[in-house]
Amino acid sequence: MQALVIVAHGSHLNPASSTPTYAHADTIRESGAFDEVREAFWKEEPSFRDALRTVESEEVFVVPLFISEGYFTEEVIPRELRLDEWDPDLWESDGTSASQATLYAEDVDKTIHYCGPVGTHDAMSDVIVKRAESVTEDPDVGEGFGLSVVGHGTERNENSAKAIEYHADRIRDMGRFDEVKALYMDEEPEVDDVTDYFESEDVVVVPLFVADGYHTQEDIPEDMGLTDDYRTGWDTPAAVDGHRIWYAGAVGTEDFMADVILERAAEAGADIRDALEKVREATGGVPASGD
């Protein structure tokens, strides 16, 4: 038997924070890829600490629904799961290339395949593009448009920016959009000044966040000038400084995220047979870039 455990941050204050996690878990559960599919959270129940005790399978694939490698994926999650053999060097990553590490959880007598976060997987570039298609309602969006990939950014963890830049570079190399820029909330270049960085009249803004919450639904719309008060909403597209801003909301709410979770597990050795194709059919996904 094999199980999938999707671990996410969650929130005590925003109940919608866990909604994408449950939605993607349901999609994968319905595909029959695993004997068991479970969700676990840092700020909600069920907790990380109890996650491995909720499954009966001897082989467990743990996929972090996080954007970047760093404090949570390298310290908090392994500690709470009691993965005593864990060391970040097992990922052999440069900050964006974590794959998986196979460990033994002695207290529950299970083999654990600890996967890299979904946010650094190559398929996330395709999810970002899907968000652009969704918000513009144009499956061919690209020509005449700029695209901004927005991250939190922090001086405390350089990997936070690495993930954003990685996907901006990959999408730029696709040659689909006229311009592609990586912008941030807490470091330069800042999303507040989004119109200063684009010549394109139409700009799609996609936040590389797992769930819609305070930052994506309050801070970023107000900072970009889409609205003076997030509670009154904003137009899509919104006119800002001679540009039309198409604000897509958190990338993690895109249905195609379920594909990325499965890709992570499959690369760690999960036997998912034809389940990935079923999920792609259900989510409208496409093979990851480079497949």
From TrEMBL:
Keyword Metal-binding: yes
Protein's UniProt name: Sirohydrochlorin cobaltochelatase
InterPro entries for the chain: CbiX-like, Sirohydro_Cobaltochel/CbiX
Matching Pfam families: CbiX (PF01903)
SUPFAM superfamilies for this protein: Chelatase (SSF53800)
PANTHER family named among the record's database cross-references: SIROHYDROCHLORIN FERROCHELATASE, CHLOROPLASTIC
GO terms assigned for molecular function: lyase activity; metal ion binding
Keywords for the protein's UniProt record, in alphabetical order: Cobalamin biosynthesis, Cobalt, Lyase, Metal-binding
Gene Ontology BP term (one): cobalamin biosynthetic process
